C-alpha cells in the first residue's frame, strides 16, 4: 500500500515522515531542505544553530538568532516549497526568544521536547506555525494537553511520541529502558486514545507521529497500524550526503557495532543514547572541566558547579573536533548503517509499494 500524506491542519506533507532534529550541527539546512524536497518535513535543530557564525564565541545568542533565519531560508530554498520546521528544547535558556524567532522567520512547524513546553501555545499565538510537544508517556500527554486546554484553551496541532529506542536524551529512566521498549506499543495506543478525547473537545484532527527506532518501511507500517499518522526518523539520515555533520561524525555511525550503542548519564539529569568511544569511557570515572559556558540551558536544568561535563561543549566538539573524544548521540539502530547514502534514496526505499 502507498503511504498516505501527513495532514497537519492546512499543512500537507506528501510523505508521512518527519526528519528528527539533531543538534548540535547535524540537522541544518542541507539535510532539512533535502527532506522537505522529497515530501517529508525537514527539521532544523536550534541547539547552538549559529556555531558556524563568526560572532558565535563572542555572542552565541545573537549568532543563534541570526542563524535561525539563514538556515531556514536556505532549507526552504532547497526544499522547493516543501515543509521546514524547528526542534527547540524546552530546557533551552531563553526558550521563549527561540520560539518567537522561529515563528518570525516563518517556521511551518515547531516540535518541542526535553521537558514539557508548557507555554508554547502562548508563544505562537496568532501565527500559522503548527506546534507539537514531544511526549514519552500517556501520563505526560494528559498532563500537558490538559494544561494547554485549561490555561490557553488551545491544543496541539500534532503530537510526537518519542520511544525508548531514540537517540540523544530520553524521557525514560535508564533502569527501566528494557521494560519500556517491551511496553511501548501499548503506551502508543493509550496516547492515541487520550489524543482522541482532545480531538473531540476541539473538533479537529490531531495527528500522532511516532519517533525512536524507526528504521525501515516495516517499522513505518507497524506504527501506522497502531493508529499513528506518521513517523519521525533521525538516525537514518545522519549518513546521507546531505546531512550537515562532518564525515568523521558520519563515520562514527558506519563503524559502530551493536555493542557500541550505549546509555550515558547526561548532565541535564536524563539518560542519553550515544556511540561508545573514548569520551563515554572517560566520563564514567572523571569530571571534565567546563572550558567555556555558552548559557545553552536554563539554570534549573544545569548546575554549572556540579555537572560532570558540559553537554553543549562536547556536542560542539563532536562536529568541530574529533568525535572520538566527544559525545556522539545516536539511535538504537545506528549500528545497522553500513554505508553512506542520499536522502532521495532513503525516501525511494521507504515509499516503495
TrEMBL record:
InterPro entries: Aldolase_TIM, NMO. Keywords: Dioxygenase, Flavoprotein, FMN, Oxidoreductase. The keyword Oxidoreductase applies. The keyword Flavoprotein applies. It comes from the Bacteria. GO terms for molecular function: dioxygenase activity; nitronate monooxygenase activity. PANTHER family: 2-NITROPROPANE DIOXYGENASE. Nitronate monooxygenase that uses molecular oxygen to catalyze the oxidative denitrification of alkyl nitronates. Acts on propionate 3-nitronate (P3N), the presumed physiological substrate. Probably functions in the detoxification of P3N, a metabolic poison produced by plants and fungi as a defense mechanism. This is Probable nitronate monooxygenase. It comes from Enterococcus rivorum.
